[in-house]
Design goal:
single chain, 157 residues, mainly beta, Jelly Rolls, three-stranded antiparallel beta sheet, 2 helices, 41% strand, globular
Length: 157
């Protein structure tokens, strides 16, 4: 069950399940006075978001393990451990996990976008990758995603 929050309360060290991914918030928006946020993320193949763009923030992925394929505008980049991929705001992008899982550091600037992930996730006190979601998300989850997307300036292609 996705728990939505009207106000984020992100703390460094929070571990959350987000749509089949495991996120650990390493550096928060609050700690950097809004400049950036840094999230350690373990991603599962098949749980990727659809193509979208961010109106307000840039994203940077530093791949630690596995292989990911990024589509940024018309460019396709295959990234492996040690690679860094920059996703600028206002450019449609998508990614897919090529290996069964991948691990990356996700840098968000400015950092307010961490709230999107926090709001649409649930606590993961065990710190293990959650099971893959079965089937499409329920209507109420889709509604929560669309409402959060509107608040955080995300447009879907």
């Amino acid at each position: 069950m996705i728990t939505t929050h009207t106000k984020t309360a992100v703390q460094a060290g929070d571990v959350r399940n987000h749509h089949g991914h495991l996120m650990t918030f390493r550096v928060t928006n609050e700690q950097t006075n809004g400049t950036f946020a840094l999230i350690d993320i373990i991603l599962r193949r098949g749980c990727e978001p659809p193509k979208h763009l961010h109106e307000r923030e840039d994203e940077l992925f530093f791949i630690q393990e596995g292989v990911m394929r990024f589509t940024i505008g018309e460019r396709i980049i295959d990234a492996k451990a040690g690679d860094t991929v920059f996703l600028p705001r206002m450019i449609p992008h998508a990614f897919e996990v090529v290996t069964p899982t991948a691990k990356a550091l996700l840098y968000l600037t400015p950092g307010q976008f961490e709230g999107f992930f926090y709001e649409l996730s649930e606590e993961a006190p065990e710190g293990v990758l959650p099971p893959a979601p079965q089937g499409p998300p329920p209507a109420e989850a889709v509604q929560a995603i669309m409402e959060a997307s509107a608040r955080y300036g995300i447009q879907y292609a």
